[in-house]
Amino acid sequence: MPKNDYTVFWTQTAFNDIDSIIDYLSDDSMTAALDVYKRIKDKATSLISFPYRGRIVPELKFQNITTFRELIISPWRIIYKVEKDVLYILSVFDGRRNLEDLLLSRFIND
Hints:
- The protein is of the alpha+beta class.
- It is 42% helix and 26% strand.
- It has a five-stranded mixed beta sheet with strand order 1-5-4-3-2.
- Helix 1 runs antiparallel to helix 2.
């Protein structure tokens, strides 16, 4: 049977996003923060066998950019892309935020 599992690689930006989420949530409840962390990590890991399960990011699809996909763990969005047999987790952010504003702030601050 051919291997169809992908390697999941978390970018530094995605790690920083997770750290920020956990830091913010832990101010109220460490238990809740750890629960969110586990849910996000489990959801990302579940992409190993079915990486194209996530939808194309709607804001980018509108601009004819179809390389990036996302999974939702409400209210969080995991943005990723697939290249060959590697799945790159690019960002994790609160879905209530405007994606364009988020990207712009990252470009300005980097």
